[in-house]
Design brief:
By secondary structure, the chain is of the alpha/beta class. The chain contains four helices and six strands, in the order αβαβββαβαβ. It has a six-stranded mixed β-sheet with strand order 1-2-3-5-4-6, with helices on both faces. Helix 1 runs antiparallel to helix 4. The longest helix is centred in the C-terminal third of the chain and has 19 residues. It starts with a helix and ends with a strand.
C-alpha cells in the first residue's frame, strides 16, 4: 500500500515534482508516551509517538537545490494502514521555531500522529537546516518543500513497519 500511495501521489503531483527531492539524513529525536500526551492534550489521544528530523533536498526560489529539514511523527501503535498528514506550519520569524526543532509548531503533527496518522511537517526554505533565506508568501516553494518531503518520507519509511493507505490530508499554511 505504501508503494501505491507513492505512485498515486507521483501521478497527481508529477507536473509539480522537482528532480531534487532526496532523503539526505534522518535523526531520532524522542519518544512521547501516550500517558504524557494525554496529560498535555486530553483523553482523545490514542498512541504514544516517535519524533524524527529528516533532511532532504528541494529547489529554492531560483531552482537551485537546497537541503531542508522537517519533522516526521510516527504513532507507536503498529498494525493496519495509516493516513498521511502533512502540516504546513504558520508564519514564524526565527529559523529555529520550526517543527523539526520541536517548537510550538510541532504540537499539531504530534497530535495527528497520536490519533493514528503518520504526520510530517516541512520547515521550509530558510528555516531549520536550510542555509538560504525564507521567501515569505512564496507558495510554489512552500508547496515544493511539502511535496518533496512526502517523497523523502517515503524513502525514510521504506524499511519500517508502517503501511500508508491512500489518504492524504493537508493542513496549515499561513
Amino acid at each position: 500500500m505504501k508503494h501505491f500511495l507513492l505512485v498515486l501521489i507521483s501521478a497527481i503531483l508529477l507536473p509539480f515534482q522537482s528532480s531534487a527531492q532526496n532523503l539526505v539524513s534522518s535523526e531520532f529525536l524522542e519518544s512521547l508516551s501516550r500517558d504524557s500526551l494525554i496529560s498535555r492534550f486530553g483523553s482523545f489521544i490514542q498512541n504514544g509517538v516517535e519524533l524524527y528530523r529528516i533532511t532532504y533536498t528541494t529547489p529554492d526560489i531560483q531552482g537551485q537545490t537546497d537541503t531542508v529539514s522537517g519533522l516526521v511523527v510516527l504513532p507507536q501503535a503498529l498494525g493496519g494502514t495509516r493516513p498521511l498528514v502533512i502540516y504546513q506550519h504558520g508564519t514564524i520569524n526565527d529559523r529555529d521555531s520550526v517543527p523539526s526543532q520541536q517548537s510550538e509548531e510541532a504540537q499539531i503533527p504530534i497530535v495527528y500522529a497520536a490519533v493514528g496518522g503518520v504526520a510530517i511537517a516541512p520547515d521550509y526554505l530558510g528555516f531549520g537546516a536550510s542555509q538560504g533565506f525564507h521567501p515569505y508568501l512564496h507558495a510554489e516553494t512552500e508547496a515544493s518543500a511539502g511535496i518533496d518531503m512526502i517523497f523523502a518520507m517515503n524513502d525514510f519509511l521504506e524499511d519500517s513497519d508502517f503501511a500508508l493507505n491512500d489518504q492524504l490530508f493537508i493542513a496549515g499554511y499561513s
